[in-house]
Amino acid sequence: MIKIKEYFTNLSLQRKWMLTSSAVIFISYAIICIVVYVSLHTWLLNDEGSKVKRTKDDVVSFLESQGPNISVQQLQQNTGLLKSIVDRDQTVRLFNNDGIEILRINNASQAAPLTPMGSIVQMTIDKKDAYVVNEPLQLGFFQVYIQVIHPLTRFESLMRYLLTAMLIAGVGALLLSGSIGYYLANYLTKPLHALRASMKTVMDQGFNEPIQLSYTSHDEIGDLLKMYNAMMNELQISFAQQQQFVADASHELRTPIQAIEGHLSLLKRWGKDDPAILEESIETSLTEITRMRKMIEELLELARREEKDEMSEANPIYVIDSVIAEMELLHPTAKITLSKIGEIGPVFITSNALSQIVRNIVENAIRYCEKVPEVNISLLTLDDKLQIQIADNGIGIAEQNLPYIFDRFYRVDEARNRQIGGTGLGLSISKMLLEKYNASVEVKSEENVGTVFLLRMPLKY
Ligand code: ADP
Question: Rounded to two decimals, what is the model's pTM?
Answer without folding.
Answer: 0.52
